[in-house]
Amino acid sequence: MLKSPAAAEMTNPAGAVRPERGARRPRIALLSNPKSTGNIAQLPRIREYCSDHPDVFHYEVEQASQIGEAMKVIARVRPKVLAINGGDGTVQAALTELHNGGHFGETPPPVAVLPSGKTNLIALDLGAKGDPIETLERLIELARTDDLAPYTVARELIALRRGEAEGEDRPVIGMFLGGAALAETMLYCREKIYPLGLPNGIAHSLAALAGFTKLILRAKASFLPPDTKPVSLSLSDQDSNLSGRFSLLLVTTLERVLLSMDLGDRREGVLKVLAVEERPGSVLGAFAASVRGRLGRAKLRGVHFKQTEEITIESESSHVILDGETFHAEHGRPIKLRPAPPLSFVKLAA
Questions:
Q1: Dihedral (C-alpha) 103, 153, 172, 64: value to the nearest 10 degrees?
Q2: Which of the four pLDDT bands, split at 50, 70 and 90, describes residue 276?
Q3: What is the model's pTM?
Q4: Does 2.60.200.40 match the CATH number of domain 176-322?
Q5: Top CATH class, 2-155
Q6: Quick one: pLDDT at residue 13?
Q7: Which of 44-53, 158-167, 258-267 has the weakest average pLDDT?
């Protein structure tokens, strides 16, 4: 469903509404996912706001397969900013289409992320929090300036491919990957806790408590997250390869997720890897170091922090989650991660 900011509109055969020729060019194109859980309460307000503000061109998709067509339409509008209204999964699907579709040529507009959805790691990293309407108002204010450059920042991206062949499939693009027990706990939260209808904060706390209980007590029960499988990580630097069972495995290009880590002047690679072995002492040590702001500054037993340009993940059968989308790492069909060309994002806070 597409909503134009123009007063004069015309409808194409597919049912989408677009601005009539000569109508005022919108400064913001807003791509919304109505099925994102965090949008259920907010979307009526957002629709009303967009209908009253000609600076916003609003396009809604019902499923990820429609994002390609959405990008084609939005590219014809030529907005100054592309805003995404959905959870991390919606953002990931949009970034993947931006990377693979080529709809904007060599100069895609800077991307902004509204604070909505169940998870908002990407929005948080870019300083978007609170009311999405307030974020939209701030974006309109910025888009009215002659130069957006002072308010944008380049972000490296992760390109995920399955299998050995480089051209086997189009890469999936994202910014945060979780694996091992972290992925199992995230899936447990999604499948067991979210259906209870609890607020996000409580749901996330319960899932974390269940995962921590399983680790400390070595408990096995249907109401706890499943067991993790051994994982092998092959990095660009062969001396840094890791294997075993991990309570925490994450790969990211985000800053705020790893805010307490001291990256110093190391430039081994843009992919930041944190792996914490599945031992209570290692998990508690990593947590304590993070609270003190020392995670990454000193060596901790069972805690591995690396920077690399390429990662291969193999396992008997282990989940990894890239910005909300789940993949399986398997022997003979590994998951490969490499940096993707950076995109420009609107950063709403320092």
A1: -60
A2: very high
A3: 0.81
A4: yes
A5: alpha beta
A6: 29
A7: 258-267
